Amino acid sequence: MKKKLFLGIDAGSSRTKAVLTDENKKIAGYAVKKSGVNFSKAANLCLTQALSNAAASVSDIKSAVFTGYGRNNIFIEVPKAVKTEISCHAKGCYAYFPYEITVIDIGGQDNKLIKINKNSKIESFKMNRKCAAGTGAFLEEMALRLDIPVSELNNLAEKSENMVKLGSFCTVFSATEVLENIQKGVKIFDIAKGIFHSVIKRVFEMDSLTKTIVITGGVVAHNPFIIKMATGAAPDKKILTPALPQFTGAFGAALYASNSTA
Ligand code: ADP
Known about the structure:
The protein is of the alpha/beta class. The protein has helices at about 40-55, 85-95, 135-145, 155-160, 170-185, 190-205, 220, 225-235, 250-260; strands spanning about 5-10, 15-20, 25-35, 60-65, 80, 100-105, 110-115, 120-130, 210-215, 240.
């Protein structure tokens, strides 16, 4: 039987994500790939996988919305529109948490902080694209200094009993601090936790925060310990993360696509 699906693609500077939603705004399929140098190729690979999850074909897609850094470089033969990342992340997050929230998206090369009021209106937003501090790129650089894959940082940090604090804002100086700590014989677990502490500090100081904070993005998806640490760092706040935190922007884009044909 013919399906009625809506496609959202979030072409991030690091990873491209696709989400297919059905007529009830439920996720029917999703996929993520490295963006590499060709957003359209990454988007098409994601689409093929998401369609396979949903047991559907391109002709089942009624409309699509593309967002993210590479949103204007995607070629897929479906009725489509483009939207900013801020709008799509806000839409995706509010669908999970429909009340006043501050969204913090920790991406591969940038961070976004979006304040949404209880009626879903975006009150303000800030985006850091100038520096790697507090982003996935920061974690990758620190993992390189520790000579471990970035995917091991979470498990290491969870075992820390005596976190070291990295005082530098700049990624280059933080890398030097990491090397100094290695030379001093500090345990790798404690350095790993210090690295996550630095991420939280950078994103929390982007702006004032409302009572409820929703943290999203690939960094949180692969490092769930960040949520625990953020809760410890801001005990007066409620820290939440949605299901599939790396796909919030693509989900929001798919919701916009379904609204456009409603
Ligand atoms: P963007 O939208 O900016 O491209 P994402 O929100 O998709 O970024 O997050 C990308 C980040 O997620 C990467 O920089 C990396 O830190 C993290 N990440 C992605 N895949 C993995 C993985 N397999 N293991 C650990 N971290 C990962």
